[in-house]
Amino acid sequence: MTFINYASREINCKIVYYGPGLGGKTTNIQYIYDTTNTESKGKLISLATETDRTLFFDFLPLDLGTIRGFKTRFHLYTVPGQVFYDASRKLILKGVDGVVFVADSQEERMDANIESIYNLRLNLKENGFEITSMPYVLQFNKRDLPNLVSVEDMEKELRLKDEPAFEAVAIKGIGVMETLKAVAKQVIMELKRGGK
Amino acid sequence: MGYSNIVLYEEEYHQIRNVLTRLNQEANARVVFLVDKNGQQIAACGEIENLDTTSLASLTAGNVAATDGLAKLIGEKEFSILFHEGEKDNIHISLVGKRVILVIIFDERSSLGLVRLRVKRASIELERIFEAIVKKVEMERQSQENGAASPFAEITDEDIDNLFSS
User: Fold this and answer.
1) What is the pTM of this model?
2) Phi, psi for A28 (deg, rounded to 5)
């Protein structure tokens, strides 16, 4: 749910990175944090366990500049990917404007991808959203690893509509900004349409 | 999308600021701020110069959402007040209406009793303002459906590309 503040001339949008555990959601946000100018970003907050697994969420506020005189701010969130944190995932999807699904390209993680995408649809529905009619981008991460599923097969298994899909190696930053840009673009287009 | 967007206009923003400023003084608080349930900061006042209010807003919303989840688990509708006690500073969090979260940070110059008392009155005023906002947004939306242009209707692909070029 976009928050438009006419008093401070600001637009705030919420983007959530979703996907199976250890798929690279936090790595995406970390890369964005590391490569953005200090003045355009806020603090990166990570609520993680001692072993660096996301416990509740990561949060990164990002200023992308102005559009039609309005300062455009994106709040990036990740969810905890591990199956048993479902209650937390549901909470983080509240008021979301756009979703990035970070899929793990390794063959042994395909089942986890499929389960997570099913879980995403379910949790969005519970929050009153339908994935087919909201800003959504698919990312095939870890393309540098052995034992990869081909992009065609991943698309066949994971594609839900005509969403943009990107190959990525988030740890090296490949595909990260392209993914963010694609989802941000859709969110702003939604705003243009009047986002109901 | 599932819900309509939240829109805050200048007039209501100033009304909200006035309520928060008064609450800050009357409750002897350090900081008073208002956050939307999704973690977007609406307004803040008090000693906020060295405070990361964006992070504060997001964590507060996460905190409230998690507590809300706990309430539902045990069959409660909600826990409408959260209180965190620190060595020097304390945080009082309460829900206003169903949509916004009022946060007060205070130290030994105030007390929980005083804060609760002042929050009660301010909440009623804030609720009234938010009801007016909801009505206004609804009217605005209807007029847009009837053909009036939204300020964002003119956004072009180029505008969006420019966002990422800097």
Assistant:
1) 0.89
2) -55, -50
CATH number at residue A128: 3.40.50.300
Range of the domain at A93: 3-193
Closest chain B C-alpha to A109 CA, distance in angstroms: 29
Q: How far is A193 from chain B (nearest CA, A)?
A: 7
Which positions 27-56 of A are in contact with B (Cβ < 8 Å)? 42-43, 45, 47, 56
B130 interaction partners in chain A (CB closer than 8 Å): none
Is there a contact between B59 and A45 if contact means CB atoms under 8 Å apart? yes
* pLDDT tens track for A114-149: 999 999 999 999 999 999 999 999 999 999 999 999
Residues A167, A176 contacting (CB under 8 angstroms): no
Partner residue opposite A2 with nearest CB, options B5, B55, B68: B5
Task: Note whether residue B2 is domain-resident.
Answer: no
Nearest Cα neighbor of A182 from A78, A100, A68, A70 is A100
Predicted confidence (pLDDT) per residue in A145-177, tens digit: 999 999 999 999 999 999 999 999 999 999 999
- Considering all CA atoms of chain A, what is the largest pairwise distance in Å, rounded to the nearest integer? 53
